[in-house]
Design the sequence.
């Protein structure tokens, strides 16, 4: 919970990790390249006081994580989004089992998501069913750019993924968090293309597709898709840290997102330990669109921030939110969400 | 012997396709070494995982531009600290085409389509910027919407805008409309506002990417100096970076 100027905010951190990128767990140079890249994101965008050393960053303790999120970080509920990367890390980077073990030690603090990789075929479907029976998750994280043996990635629209979506629908796994990393096949196409989200969002209207880091670096494509598909959401990890180093740029991002998607489909996340929720939340609550940009982008109200910081995610995950944090339901949801406005976009 | 300034000027003509800025402006040129008629260029991109196709175009274009200079007979471009750095450096040095360098990994054709896609995006961004520059000069949105191509004055983005418009084969006759849709159709006066709102989003995206990339490059340069190169020789790698079977 965060309180500022008499305003209360219920906080759901939509995307956190408990990773192990210690040297012992790094399997090859890609695993090393990956954690270095991750570390550069952290160091590049964090306020100086929050920057860890590379050694600290490779592997942190449960106590560190819990303290940072719940004692210092204002978070009420945090959602683990596992990232396996078994081709890069001996025991995986951050698995459901790892996350569940932490969650067990701290009841009611965490939501643990599952994951699947459609390249696992029939066996993968069985595994998903079994894992769901064990952990009962409502969401999964997909990493379409993950390397696996000879494969360098997949598209959500590939045939092999559809049986998995069907199984998700059957099991009530409604929240599909998609991390669109740089794919490498086919090599001559745009590595960051997000159009596969469009296809699956249309075909699976009962599933919700939360596109992490709002499709960056393809923010524009993400917004076109989000404006047309009401079951597409944007996760703010990677985008929200700009609030510190590039506040005017962040104003543009959040302004465009509110315009094309509306305030009901944007979700806060720290991507911990990439960034620390404490400074993200403090700065976001204090943030306002610069005056010279308000004629284009309007203003951010406390209610909008409440939705983004926790209420939107709470809706997706059935998290009970005490009345004092609620928002009165309002109509204006941005250009994309109102079906009458869809024609204007030329969908 | 060719001068360093000539080499840098040549590299300044090479654009990052995604960011539409030059290698020099983006600080991607880590080093240039000249020995007689032989030039070595080191490139370093913002991250280890920057898209190989874009990395390729930059390395290949750099090679081409420098090779074309008077007094240059040999060029070697090295892509540092990148997951496909070795493959790309070797293939560009050997004069291979993209699909020769990565057989089986391309789905029909070379990088022409990718280049064109991003040139078109760069065009949309430059057009939105010149519209903003015209507004700053006092033109109203209605006036801008009605302007002809020949009416475009010299504003900061005019030169690059015209260059892209020509490269893409878009209408360049003086009487053609100034504002075009991304597909080259002239924008009607009543479509202009909508077009520019959509283009604004593209500009926010591309400019933001450029900003992010520059920040990442500065950060990694500091860190690689402290922690050593990302390409740690002591770590094993799979037999080949790229395998020819494509997606499963």
Sequence:
């Amino acid at each position: 919970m965060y309180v500022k100027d008499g305003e209360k905010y219920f906080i759901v951190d939509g995307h956190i990790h408990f990773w192990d990128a210690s040297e012992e767990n790094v399997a090859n140079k890609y695993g090393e390249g990956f954690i270095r890249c991750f570390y550069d994101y952290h160091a590049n965008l964090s306020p100086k006081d929050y920057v860890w050393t590379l050694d600290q960053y490779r592997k942190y303790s449960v106590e560190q994580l819990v303290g940072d999120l719940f004692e210092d970080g204002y978070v009420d509920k945090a959602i683990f989004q596992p990232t396996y990367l078994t081709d890069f890390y001996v025991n995986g980077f951050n698995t459901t089992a790892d996350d569940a073990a932490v969650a067990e030690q701290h009841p009611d603090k965490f939501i643990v998501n599952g994951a699947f990789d459609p390249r696992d075929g029939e066996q993968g479907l069985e595994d998903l069913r079994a894992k769901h029976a064990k952990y009962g998750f409502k969401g999964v994280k997909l990493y379409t750019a993950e390397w696996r043996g000879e494969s360098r990635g997949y598209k959500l629209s590939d045939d092999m993924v559809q049986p998995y979506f069907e199984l998700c629908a059957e099991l009530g796994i409604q929240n599909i968090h998609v991390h669109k990393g740089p794919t490498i096949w086919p090599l001559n196409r745009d590595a960051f293309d997000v159009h596969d989200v469009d296809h699956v969002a249309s075909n699976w209207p009962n599933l919700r597709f939360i596109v992490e880091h709002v499709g960056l670096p393809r923010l524009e494509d993400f917004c076109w898709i989000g404006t047309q598909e009401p079951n597409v959401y944007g996760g703010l990890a990677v985008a929200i840290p700009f609030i510190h180093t590039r506040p005017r740029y962040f104003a543009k991002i959040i302004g465009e997102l509110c315009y094309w998607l509306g305030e009901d489909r944007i979700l806060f996340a720290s991507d911990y330990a990439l960034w620390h929720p404490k400074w993200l939340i403090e700065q976001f609550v204090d943030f306002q669109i610069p005056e010279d940009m308000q004629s284009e982008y309007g203003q951010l109200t406390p209610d909008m921030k409440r939705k983004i910081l926790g209420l939107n995610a709470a809706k997706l995950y059935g998290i009970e939110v005490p009345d004092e944090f609620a928002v009165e339901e309002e109509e204006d949801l941005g250009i994309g969400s109102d079906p009458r406005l869809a024609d204007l976009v030329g969908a | 012997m060719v001068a360093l300034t000539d080499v840098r000027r040549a590299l300044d003509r090479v654009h990052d396709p995604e960011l539409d800025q030059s290698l020099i402006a983006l600080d991607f040129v880590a080093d240039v070494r000249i020995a007689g008629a032989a030039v070595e260029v080191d490139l370093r991109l913002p991250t280890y995982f920057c898209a190989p196709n874009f990395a390729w175009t930059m390395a290949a274009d750099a090679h081409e531009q420098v090779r074309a200079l008077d007094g240059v007979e040999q060029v070697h471009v090295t892509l540092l600290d990148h997951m496909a750095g070795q493959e790309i450096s070797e293939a560009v040095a050997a004069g291979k085409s993209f699909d020769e360098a990565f057989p089986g990994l391309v789905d029909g054709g070379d990088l022409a389509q990718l280049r064109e896609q991003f040139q078109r995006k760069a065009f949309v961004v430059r057009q939105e910027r010149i519209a903003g520059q015209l507004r700053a000069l006092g033109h109203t949105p209605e006036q801008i919407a009605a302007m002809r191509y020949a009416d475009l004055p010299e504003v900061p983005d005019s030169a690059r805008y015209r260059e892209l418009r020509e490269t893409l084969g878009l209408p360049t006759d003086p009487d053609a409309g100034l504002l075009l849709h991304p597909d080259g159709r002239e924008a009607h006066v009543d479509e202009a506002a909508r077009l520019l709102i959509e283009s604004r989003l593209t500009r926010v995206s591309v400019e933001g990417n450029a900003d992010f990339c520059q920040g990442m490059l500065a950060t990694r340069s500091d860190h690689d100096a402290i922690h050593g190169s990302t390409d740690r020789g002591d770590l094993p790698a799979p037999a080949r970076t790229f395998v020819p079977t494509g997606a499963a």
In short: Chain A touches chain B through 56 residues (CB under 8 Å). Residues 226 and 232 of chain A are 5 Å apart (CA to CA).
